[in-house]
Structures
1.
Amino acid sequence: MMEVPPIPTNAAEIPSPALLLHWENVEENLRRMLAMVDAPDRLRPHLKTHKLPQIIARLVQLGVTKAKAATIAEAEMAAGAGATDILLAAPLVGPTVPRFLALMQAFPDVLFSGLADDLDALEALSTASLQAGKQIHVLLDVDIGQHRTGVAPGNAAEALYHLMTALPGIHPAGLHAYDGHLHQSNVAERAAACEEAFATVAALRKKLEAAGHQVPTVVAGGTPTFPMHARRTGVECSPGTCVLWDAGYAKNLPDLDFLPAATLLTRVISRPTHDRLCLDLGHKAVASEMPHPRALFPELPDAQAVMHNEEHLVLETTRAHEFPVGTPLMAIPWHVCPTVALHAFVHVVRDQQATEVWPILARSRKLTY
């Protein structure tokens, strides 16, 4: 059962729908993340979930100076917040390349790295790096089952890494293997699948090193397989969702012990029938890329979503009569990452009081570069 934070005592002052960040739970989640690894430098948390410089700065204070980003804006935000080693977990192609080089120029004391899985893209990156007079650190993106990006960890991957070592301006920095397709609720099944998938990465690393290549870094996994990779040596872990947590992972990954640190404040804006409540929690306030439930309501465990539009969510519940129009409700998003991206700012809650408002800086696709 999730330990749900209470509605802020000053909820009447907060316009809804609103994203709330419960700072004590953030702190506790960071503590639990650190407790799972043997040293802070084993962590390279993915910041795509929260997109907040304040959380990056707190991680740096705790000794976690590495970060993983999904966009140039996220990478810039992380550098500005104090991270010193930032992986852009996306292939370096097209206009991303000059923007990436501009980041390197703007933050010379930060080590930036990116991903590659294609020879033509690598050759274009090599040309751009030479023109800029820079050496770009690149990790080979290895596909271990998600089939989204990456090259399969066999002969083709070995050959591409070998070619990376020969391309001027390219510094082969290791391997990246994201196993986001592994989210079995049964921890033993998830662990077995993780071991089977990662064995191919370990074998690739061994072959590359036997051939005389340096493979200084292996970045592996996300939140579901964080416990498995945390037990390895010589592997960096890149969980992201566990910083804020959400209802989907809480239900599907019962072995992971994190707290909901991001919630949604919504209000009853109408009671259209005796058993229905209409809330101001539409598609534009909570992620709606999956079937219902898209949010859970601790005060209404029996509620069923019957209609969801841009600005409205209609719930059916036998307890509708208990919630007058204007009543604030707490909602736990099912998928927190895209939910955060829908909000321009977050209300920070400390000691049950919403006292600050922070812009979600890296929600933007572009900051400076």
Note: DSSP finds ten helices and 16 strands in the chain.
2.
Amino acid sequence: MSTPEAVRRADLALADLTANGGVLDPEHQGRFFQRVIDAPTIFREVRSVNMGAPEMKIPKIGFGSRVLRKAPGTGGGGAQDDGTNTRYLPAAQRAKPDFGLVEMKTEEFIAEIHLHDDLLEDNIEKDALVDTIMALLAERVALDLEELLLTADTSSSDAFLASQDGVLKLLTSNVVNANGAPISAAIFNSMKKQMPTRFRRNLNAMRFFTSMDVESDYRLAVASRGTDLGDAILTGNAPLPVLGVPLKGVALMPEQNGLLLNPQNILFGIQRNIRIERERDIRARSWIIVLTMRVAIQIEEEEAAVKLVGLGQ
């Protein structure tokens, strides 16, 4: 039985597969219908960072304020800068770069699956069942990681989400409160204006992210216009541009929240690639599959993102 490399975390309910002894009626086809789940959105666009240790500090550098000054035009001419030559800028006007650090710390996650011999011997897919399970794992863990990426909060009562802080918790500088109002162009405009102008240079690389229902509501509002644009929005499925920024719906985004940012501004640290290990339990007559990984979440430039809160329906 082969084990694909692209394996992700999941929690498989064996009772769902072993109903009726793991054997389906003869009229069923030769493969299981695979249960469809939500597809990750932000997770596929964020920036991966390979980490060689549990903690990493990523240095960053830039000029946050004006560096040009009116050049002094008289005096001096000497080669030595002693601070008295009037052709040199005074020390207070000299520029220096701003330095900073992005600190990342990984947490470990694990999934454990038990596959009993009866399940492997009597199912309709035979040896292909392991491949099916691994493919489903790949889909499920990507979705789980997007949930962690967005909604993780160390104050959560959910132990999985409490492992670290996610994007919605990490963003605190630029916040727009809708105060219960439904989505509208005015709210998107407030989010765009809340973004510092120095970060608006490449709007095509940025994204508005909302829940899928909010995205659908706004798409319907635009489509209701009696214009060619309205017809195109109603019949198309491409991301809807809003004020020059594509809008995408995210299955796991809370209904009251939204984001405006370049998804590459989100750092997803990976200290350990997904590791899959199998062990035979001869007394239980089953295989145990254990999947582990160590990951971290951080924002590279926290000021280069806007968070929406308080959105109503």
Note: Residues 14-52+102-309 form a domain with the phage-related protein like fold fold (CATH 3.90.1690).
